[in-house]
Model the fold of this input.
Amino acid sequence: MNNPQLDNCPSCGALYLRDQIDCCLNCYQANEAAFKKVDVFLKNPDHRNASIEDVHAFTDVSINKIAEFLREGRIIASDYPNLGYPCAHCGERINRQMLCEACHRAFKQEVNAIMSEAESAESVDKRRAASAQYWKMKK
Done:
């Protein structure tokens, strides 16, 4: 078992002993109460087609908190066809992760391009270092 560590709550800043949960007890209880509100609302068959804005309007739980529940898998988005949250980059409605497929693909391509540039620059530096070593040794 992990040794508990003293930490600041990411939500309210209060000191707490980080053991099993990632926030203080008060914030954890508030999160659980918010989740229960959302869960009860969504379990009503009349609300199966509710959007994230509808859930927010009826439960007073923030859209970011509802999106967090979806990302964590606490709410299964596939069970609710209109429930989604905006992509962190372009704003398109998505049901999982942080980025839509198009933004994820573009991000991945940019990272690969940067990595290949870094690798080619590193190989050039190695060749220069090797040739400089050769000339130093030859003299």
In short: The two ends are 61 Å apart (CA to CA). The CA atoms of residues 12 and 128 lie 53 Å apart. The mean pLDDT is 85. The longest helix spans residues 101-138.
